[in-house]
Amino acid sequence: MSKAKFNTALIVGAGSGLSASLTRALAKEGIKVALAARTPGDLDALAKETGARAFACDASKRAEVEKLFAEVDAAFGAPDIVMSDMAPNTVGHRQTDHLRIVMLIEAAADFAIEVLKPGGTFITKAFQGGETAEVLRTLKAAFTEVKHVKPKASRQQSSEVYLVATGLRPRG
Ligand SMILES: C[S@@+](CC[C@H](N)C(=O)[O-])C[C@H]1O[C@@H](n2cnc3c(N)ncnc32)[C@H](O)[C@@H]1O
Questions:
Q1: Secondary structure (3-state) at 76
Q2: What is the pTM of this model?
């Protein structure tokens, strides 16, 4: 990761796992990190350790997403990277769980396209077969490259994958 290329990152659905490791790695590179979670108080220790700033946001609520954009923009400017590590609480009903996953991926993709700097990168947690053709179409129209990535740290048995979209095209 090069310092010249990225200055700011926004991680939505942040917690103590992968997103905390990512925050530490980004902060080490001198990248300013905004963390958004439904209960931002849980991120106080991480924010103190890394210099990141924590914001409250339930991404399923449009008004909260808009407030988050305004706050992050005022604090850091438009982010170069938006990452969503959100996953819904599952209820064990296949179709319901699938719909909840799709909704979070779509919400994250929409807001990333709206807030990212042109040229920016969007990364979202997804699940094999979890996103819709529609969200892939939206991302492919908005970014120059879109791919699925299975990080080494992700358990092989898990259907978890990450969608990585790079090079946000300038908005028309
Ligand atoms: C699998 S956990 C990942 C936690 C975290 N990224 C980490 O590295 O520890 C999924 C996270 O998504 C968050 N989440 C689910 N729905 C959300 C929503 N509508 N808005 C914000 N966060 C949400 C949950 O609170 C939870 O922290």
A1: helix
A2: 0.91
Homologous superfamily of domain range 8-168: Vaccinia Virus protein VP39 (3.40.50.150)
Place of tokens 């790695």: 25
- pLDDT bracket for residue 143 (50, 70, 90): very high
Indicate which residue of 3, 125, 140, 150 is catalytic.
Answer: 125
Using DSSP, state whether 22 is helix, strand or coil. Answer: helix
Is 24 touching ligand 1 by the criterion CB < 6 Å?
no
pLDDT tens digit sequence for 162-172: 899 999 999 77
Domain boundaries, the chain: 8-168
17: Cβ below 6 Å to ligand 1?
A: yes
- Is 61 catalytic? The answer is no
Question: 146, 164 in Cβ contact below 8 A?
Answer: yes
Distance from residue 65's CA to the centre of ligand 1 (Å): 14
- Could you read off the pLDDT of 45-103 as tens digits, one per residue? 999 999 999 999 999 899 999 999 899 999 999 999 999 989 888 888 888 888 888 88
